[in-house]
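queue> holo job accepted (thiamine diphosphate)
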Amino acid sequence: MSRPDTPTLDKVDGPSDMTALDDATLGLLATELREELISAVSETGGHLGSSLGVVELTVALHAVFRAPYDKIIWDVGHQCYPHKILTERRDQIRTLRQKDGLSGFTKRSESEFDPFGAAHSSTSISAALGFAAARDLGADTGHAVAVIGDGSISAGMAYEALNNAGHDKRRLIVVLNDNEMSIAPPVGAMSRYLTGLQSELGGLSASIKDHARRARALVTGQPDRGTLFEQMGFTYVGPIDGHDMGQLLQTLRAVQSRADGPVLIHCCTVKGKGYRPAEHSPDKYHGVSKFDVLSGAQQKAKSNAPSYTSVFGHALVDEAERDPKIVAITAAMPSGTGLDFMVERFPERTFDVGIAEQHAVTFSAGLAAAGMRPFCAIYSTFLQRAYDQIVHDVALQNLPVRFAIDRAGLVGADGPTHAGAFDIGYLTHLPNFTVMAAADEAELIHMVATAAEHDGGPIAFRYPRGTGVGVDLPAIPQPLPIGRGRIMTEGNDVAILSYGAHLSECLMAAERLEAQGISATVADARFSKPLDTNMIKQLLRHHKAMITVEQGARGGFGAHVLEWLANEGGFDRGMKVRTMTLPDRFINQASPMEMYEDAGLDAAYITVNCVELLGLVGGRFPAPLQA
Ligand SMILES: Cc1ncc(C[n+]2csc(CCOP(=O)(O)OP(=O)(O)O)c2C)c(N)n1
Ligand SMILES: CC(=O)[C@@H](O)[C@H](O)COP(=O)(O)O
Ligand SMILES: [Mg+2]
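queue> job finished
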């Protein structure tokens, strides 16, 4: 079909504009949508490969279902850019993941076409089932459609939802978007099973599929029990070609009009479809920085310092060279966590368990119970999902699992869903735990060594996303004395007690104070548990005031310091102590420094708070809470 003078995409603001389009024009719309997507993401960066793979599926879903009355729920939401373009947000798509711009994920507050917010995986079937149950109880809502990837369906939550939905039998549509990729190549028995289904049934018409099944039953003498999904109570449709608009429309229309129970549509797609660099390297184009469309070359980080992630990965390999009991565990993020270096050097001692943080933690606990030294490397935000396992399987049994917690603090473009805000609080209050935060990349190396030799119980260390501060890296790592901090600069007016990677901001604040005639001591606490209470006592004795600073939510390091002061420190009266944490609200995406500024947690705010605490002038505080 030749292209019309005015692109079809220009005539589509929302899905209602698609109702008049015939099937061939919908195909054309998909082509234009893909071009718009590539052009926009080349300017903003973002999750390119996943979004490219669902262009036809997105067009077909919006052509067949009636959003926002019907609820289309994207799992993770990282593939929702074509959906955003088709649902009244095309004019903002080039603000994606930027300050004050569109979120990189689905977000309820952003659009009525995003019925459920996401970013952490494997929640879509549960949420869709919630909508379906509400509908059946009289809520004014139509079909509930969950779109979930082959990687995301490997997580426990997805099985819990399938199990419930298959038993429940209410009308629910699950589209399994199977591109045979997670961020890295997918792992696990389910992935193997889905690949088997694709090769066994892919490309056959429905009647030939039935025939093949009957023939197999005759030959093997075993009754045809259908697919795993059928055994779980779903009607299984597929596999279908997720880039063939005709097949997609025919299948979705049939399901839309006839489904009366749970249906799973197995839709096969190609990650990165239609953009050669992304199709060839689906892992490298899963999440991209800004790129040149012609060459595919992505913008490089400006700093020459290594990333914390790679420093961790190399430090762990070095420890593993020395100690054969060291093993490493990732939940589907080998490159994101730096464990790809371990995979390369010690493949047999590195375990990718799929998107399964809960399992990863208890699996690590099992390894520790058997005498191994497991490093469980999980982003702060994803570790939240495994909290009960941390408490019940690790802390309670005092098992020496080493938690390497990447993406601590505010992460930038991924926004509040990916902020590592809570781990200080949720780990430091657990009995048996030792908890550390790295102030820079050299400290991170020492903390890996500290964790490696710590067999006395669970131990965790956190570090941020991105490049380090550029300090020299130690040739020989030195395990740190447990519960001992260090003094960085000495002054006598105010003490700034930093925990973690905001140390550089604290040092900057000290310089600004110096310029105002105020002398500050800056200390690096290193540990939030156990606290270096001797150092804290000294800081309090020799300064007029003290401020704690951390890249985490309230109820973290500062709160532990205050609690110790009030209960055991004997310093509860007349002390000038203030904590600086993230505020009690979620911070929208921007660059990490802009996010910290929004949070009232940068060098400028630290400086002003010190001045104010000393009673010298009025302080400057973050803007009041937004509604
Ligand atoms: C709980 C959780 N763990 C890890 C991640 C990181 N993550 C985001 S997308 C992704 C891969 C998802 O694969 P799949 O569902 O197949 O989608 P695709 O990118 O292939 O379209 C992972 C591991 C996450 N978002 N949530
Ligand atoms: C969607 C998702 O959860 C991941 O792709 C995440 O965006 C990766 O973040 P990093 O870029 O920090 O590894
Ligand atoms: Mg996938």
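queue> The first strand starts at residue 71 and ends at 74.
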